[in-house]
What does this fold into?
Amino acid sequence: MVQHLKQALREKMLKARDSLGGAEAARLSKAIADKLTVHPRFKEAKTIGFYIQKGKEVDTSGMIDAAVRAGKTVAAPVTDHKITLFPFKSPSDLAPGKFGIPEPRTKDSKPAEPDLIVVPGVAFGLCMHRLGYGKGYYDSYLAHSFAYRIGICFDFQVVDKLPSHENDQRMDEIITEKRVILL
It folds into this structure.
């Protein structure tokens, strides 16, 4: 039953997100980036894990640029049978990975252990859980991570109640273009 509810919500949110125009998605992404890059956890972090945008997800490129300019180590997921975060310095260090999403080329370096991780989601609940694409990669990674977790999404992707499972991991905060949500 929970899986059916999740799938229905996933389809609804992806349809709404995919209907955003490019200029609107860019404007909203910038508003989210402006909030994240002044956040005390962003300023304090030495290493930050970012996802690389897929489709009409919140664009993290401006956030990544700000972190690099601030001298932080930035890392992104490499996906095999699980997620491992590896550092990278610029977009030229990325190449398409398992799902066609850019990921760090240099997987021979030591995996990064971020102080802060910026997490994508198809939807987030006010309960601080997230709904991803249904593969469980981020939940598995977050279950063993001590990083502070900030989920980012467009405000319409936040719902009052989100169906969740015992393995679903919670965020510490959620940032949208309109608000910062704390538990």
